[in-house]
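Milestone 3.1: sequence recovery, worked example.
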């Protein structure tokens, strides 16, 4: 049966498979329903109780290369001749109108049109009563490009992790094997250097694993926050002291603390991670002095909403305005390559988990300035 006969009372594949009665015409819908459907970004197809298409929005027409006027009134199985991954006729396999009466929806999955076009399809059932007959099928269509982008992102993550792990693990394995095989041939100083290298590379692997866990928690919305009273300037001072103890010159850092800071109930570990990442980013990708400013702020224009703003500035080349929107994306790296490119993405996720916001701009006198604002006050019970 071709599409021309499907809308003229002849049974389509859906009817032939399910024994559905033919309907003389599609149910008319108000024009404003159709207008709203056309404004949706995803494809929307609605079939009535007889399996005929009554809504076929603009996005559905684009995804299927079928004009709306060609689809309306025809059997949905003819307009959307879906096949699954095994090549089975999806309509016959699922039998939506005469299948399980408890079925309410089909989660999103890949289905294929006759020309091989892959679509991400989810289906909802509108029934007459809780377990009554199907009144309408509501079908949502999305292109597979979004999933392809997600898969590319995951592949890039796997590639990045493999690359970052290879170097330290090779070092750990090499030095450990050398020490075990030739321990007595090395002086104490040589042993110490090799063991310090192994220790540093093990720390690098640990940091990478921590980053991956943070990315997973951010993407899944499972970031846990354990609030306690936190002295933000004190945490910043400890981060700077740690950099100096690791060999950075003391005069490379400056901490400026504003007056009258409000009480802050935050997650101390996450604050340390945010400040540590931003300071490291300033040292690695910036130049000159790194300045950390902690000052009182407010969220919006409401004076009753106190907050604390933390600014981390460097004196390097800065970040061009056209690049700024990409800084907090996964795998973004500055001109000086290095690291996984996940640090600032994680910083943004941590700041937002604490109820704050972070931006990047130009520091006074040049350089980059990262500024995040966190709400103050005791946590809401």
């Amino acid at each position: 049966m071709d599409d021309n006969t499907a809308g003229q009372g002849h049974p389509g594949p859906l009817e032939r498979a399910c024994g559905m009665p033919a309907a003389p015409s599609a149910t008319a819908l108000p024009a404003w329903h159709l207008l709203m459907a056309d404004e949706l970004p995803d494809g929307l197809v609605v079939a009535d109780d007889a399996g005929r298409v009554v809504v076929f929005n603009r996005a559905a027409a684009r995804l299927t290369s079928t004009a709306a006027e060609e689809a309306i009134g025809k059997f949905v199985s003819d307009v959307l001749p879906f096949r699954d991954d095994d090549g089975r006729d999806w309509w016959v396999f699922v039998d939506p109108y005469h299948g399980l009466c408890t079925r309410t929806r089909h989660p999103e999955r890949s289905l294929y049109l006759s020309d091989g076009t892959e679509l991400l399809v989810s289906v909802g059932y509108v029934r007459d009563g809780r377990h009554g007959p199907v009144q309408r099928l509501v079908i949502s269509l999305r292109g597979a490009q979004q999933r392809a982008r997600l898969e590319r992102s995951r592949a890039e993550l796997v590639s990045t992790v493999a690359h970052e792990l290879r170097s330290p693990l090779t070092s750990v394995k090499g030095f450990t094997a050398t020490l075990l095989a030739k321990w007595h041939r090395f002086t104490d100083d040589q042993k110490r250097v090799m063991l310090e290298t192994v220790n540093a590379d093990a720390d690098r692997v640990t940091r990478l694993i921590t980053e991956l866990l943070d990315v997973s928690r951010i993407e899944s919305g499972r970031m846990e926050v354990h609030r306690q009273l936190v002295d933000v300037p004190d945490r910043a001072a400890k981060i700077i002291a740690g950099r100096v103890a690791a060999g950075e010159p003391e005069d490379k850092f400056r901490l400026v603390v504003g007056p009258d800071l409000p009480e802050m109930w935050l997650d101390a570990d996450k604050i340390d991670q945010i400040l540590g990442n931003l300071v490291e980013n300033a040292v690695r990708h910036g130049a000159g002095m790194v300045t950390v400013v902690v000052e009182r702020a407010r969220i919006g224009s409401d004076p009753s909403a106190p907050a604390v703003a933390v600014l981390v500035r460097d004196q390097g080349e800065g970040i061009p305005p056209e690049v700024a929107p990409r800084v907090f994306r996964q795998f973004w790296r500055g001109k000086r390559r290095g690291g996984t490119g996940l640090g600032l993405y994680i910083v943004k996720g941590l700041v937002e988990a604490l109820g704050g916001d972070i931006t990047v701009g130009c520091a006074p006198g040049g350089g980059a300035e990262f500024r995040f604002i966190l709400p103050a006050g005791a946590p809401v019970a």
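The chain has three domains: 3-143, 147-220, 228-375. Confidence is low (pLDDT under 50) at residues 1-27.
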